[in-house]
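Lab notebook, bench 4. The sequencing result for the construct came back, and we need a structural model before the next group meeting so we can plan mutations. Quick request posted to the team channel:

Model the 3D structure of this chain.
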Amino acid sequence: MSHTIAACSSGALPCAIGIVRLSGDDAGRILNALFRPRGSSSITDKQTCHLHYGKLLSPSGETVDLCLAAFYRAPRSYTGEDMAEIFCHGSAAVVESTLRHAFSQGARPAQPGEFTRRAFLNGKMGLVEAEAVADLLDAQSEREALNAAAQLDGAIGRPLRDLRAELTGLTAHFYAVCDYPDEDIDPFEYQNAQAVLLRAEQSLARLADGFERGSLLKSGFPVAVVGRPNAGKSSLFNALAGSERAIVTAEAGTTRDVLEQPIALSGGRVLLMDTAGIRTPEGEAERIGVERALRAAQQARAALWVFDGSQPLPVEPEELPQALRGKPCAAVVNKSDLPPAFDPATLAPRFDALFTLSAKTGEGLDALCEWLSGLIPPAAEILVTSPRQAALLRQALESVRAALASAQSGMTADAFLLDVEQAIRLLGEVTGEDVSADIIHEIFSRFCVGK
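Done. Here's the predicted structure in token form:
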């Protein structure tokens, strides 16, 4: 018997609508005690999976709120159990009163992620899909949400389960041929086994290789804002960030440390890094600032080299730091609101893109943001974003490659299938078909209460 749990699923209170969620064998009975639909004394007698209007009751039977509620009969619910949701006004008084009433009827407070954990344990979703729920809740950009929603819909979990089933079928076929030689079983074909392993290697390599791009999708594509002192780097950083994150003064060398700020763009998130002006340092603090600026440029995947358009360019062309070579780098000629001191077009041959703008007025920022959006991995690719999944996929890939190499070198199937069985186990850990209770607990403990 499943103990009934209850929690607020609508986040911080107060809010427009508070959602109280229950799941378990007694969810229907407790909902009947809490909620009386119009024209009936029992919501469980009404059509399930529909919203019904009625009165939310206190333990003494008084009306606490007029609201909506729904009852979902197992297995047609998020958790796969009997489940109820009450959509009331989102005041702390109403929600807390409702939860106290539910607890007095035998429910207990839900643990973090317990609703989704029950959905996983009841076969409503795999472990990859469950982890995608957390990604969807944490999404800071539309691109992140699209990637998480695709994972939740099975874009990664489904092919992994299919691949695991194919590898399992391969090993089962071999052992069946060995154990039942007199039965009418198709012979084990080494050519077919190699083809299966090659497909598995290609699929796993694609997913494992996509993790780096997936992690950038979550943390933000790192872009360093670099250039000489007083070019307007911090002003540009603030303009893109939409807030006064960096100190801006007329004094050269104001920025000494690296400031980071994620910004949401149409394609996803970019992690901007404002850095100290690059020049020969005049003191110990500035020397450290320049070193950190170069280190940030090394870690970045792209850069914005900012020029002061109101000041003449140096006689000798400025050289990009070694850390930026080979990376997308745009020249940003700032201070277009002031009289120009040089033709920006002279910079074009040395950079991947050229923008003339004013960080002070915002003129020209849209074109720069469009270029930054183009740096983010395309939405058509569904990326692995979980470090846990990525580590297991890389291990499974190593096992499949070892099996393929053994098969191609002419080793017997009983030898190379040991590596295949290891890959099957690792894929089972990814999808949740072969995973320990400790791992399950660790994953769902990172969820919020009510999800």
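The first strand starts at residue 5 and ends at 8.
Will bring this to the meeting.
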